Structure prediction request, 255 residues.
Amino acid sequence: MSRRYFIAGNWKMNKTAAEAKALIAEINALVGAETAVDVAVCPTFTALDAASQALKGSNVKLGAQNMYFEKSGAFTGEISADMLKEFGTEYVILGHSERREYFKECDCLINKKVKAVLANGMKPILCVGETLEQREGGKTIDVVSEQTVGGLKDVSKEDAEKVVVAYEPVWAIGTGKTATPEMAQEVHAEIRKVLAKLFGADTAEKIQILYGGSMKPENADALLKEKDIDGGLIGGAALKADSFAALVKSAKKLA
Ligand code: PGA
Prediction:
């Protein structure tokens, strides 16, 4: 496979700066020298400084969990691209279902953020995924396609190569319920078709599509074997160095 595997930890609202530093020290010891797989951790904003220092000399990259699209100004509580870049942030998770649900983020806002991340030389990890109700109503492909198209509106073909898409079925996040490898592969293949329509087949082939939703060492091998599953966006299992490292090793075996 020409695409590299990518294992990214989404720490969500967990870990103080001191705790982040300690966890990264453990992760570095286990997978800090990894070269065959792309690896990143995405701590909270308040831990980015400590995390970036702890990642010096490590191959593990730094990501953030959100960003506002404006450059600066009167946007109380928001964080800009320059603020993230100051710490060497390379990835920004955008459009996570928790942000869509609890903070009412729509495709239109997410799209502005995606473009701002790209304009600032960082890589967006655009999350898409259906709720249980949407899945049961047979709407999975429609929902995921609409979120992909909406999130990537007006992104150039050249920039599209820097985008990472994460398919995260909402009903599988933090629930212990994982999509079966076949279910996930079906949606990943559809996402790649949408990407091919938007940017051409060659570009679509280069874009990493991650699976997220209760991915853990026990189910990772089967998911990662699927043709269009290029890695994982990991929540719970990323908060412990040993399980996170085990996921990196699963990907490495297949790389
Ligand atoms: P989970 O979360 O691995 O805990 O299900 C994944 C995510 O929400 O990114």
